[in-house]
Design brief:
By secondary structure, the chain is α+β, with helices and mostly antiparallel strands. It contains two helices and ten strands; from the N terminus they run αββββββββββα. It has a five-stranded mixed beta sheet, with no helix packed on it. It has a five-stranded mixed beta sheet with strand order 4-2-10-6-8, with no helix packed on it. About 20% of the residues are buried.
């Protein structure tokens, strides 16, 4: 059976739509992988422990906090900046507060600016690695342990970086099942 010209054209058009849909679906995980490998887009590196090398050169690290629209928490860095030596382990804290009368779950996304420093900003431990759930009225201090990889001085762009900004944005997420299934606290009304 031979296809007519309009059928061939329609088949090609469907093929192009399927190809473009497949490429757009694959672009998000591919871009995420690319950013993690290269540090492009301010994606940070991770490590199990501290750096083996500490240099005398210092860098100023600034801390920034924001929330997605509609996220009811209050969220801020405890300190706004610190100066550390390349390879030195830094410890910074962020504070989150849930002023609502319900539990709220959140996940933090992050980036580093300038982008050229992203692959050299190395997190050892971070609250952004897991979902956070705050109960009504709960206030928590969340640590970030990090260092700036001394290899930054070998990079043709990043070696000129004197200040790095670590930014977090909290997004509200669905409550985990075990928290969502709990009965809300009962209010006792006295006459």
């Amino acid at each position: 059976m031979s296809l007519t010209q309009p059928q061939k054209t329609a088949a090609k058009a469907v093929g192009v739509v399927i190809l473009m849909g497949s490429l757009s679906w694959a672009s998000v995980p591919f871009y995420d992988w690319f950013c993690r490998v290269t540090g492009f887009g301010g994606e940070t590196a991770t490590a199990e422990g501290a750096s083996d090398v500490v240099l005398d050169r210092t860098v100023l690290v600034r801390f920034d906090a924001s929330k997605e629209r509609g996220m009811p928490w209050e969220f801020k860095p405890v300190q706004h900046e610190m100066e550390i030596r390349l390879g030195e382990t830094g410890l910074a804290f962020y504070e989150a507060y849930n002023p609502t009368d319900r539990p709220v779950a959140g996940t933090a996304s992050y980036n580093v600016a300038p982008f050229s420093a992203g692959g050299f900003f190395t997190k050892i431990d971070c609250f952004c690695f897991e979902e956070q759930v705050l109960q009504p009225g709960e206030r928590v201090t969340m640590p970030v342990t990090f260092y700036v990889d001394p290899e930054i001085i070998e990079d043709r762009e990043a070696k000129y970086v004197n200040a790095i900004t670590l930014s977090y944005t909290f997004h509200e997420t669905e409550l985990p099942e075990e928290v969502a299934s709990l009965d809300p606290p009962q209010t006792v009304v006295q006459n």
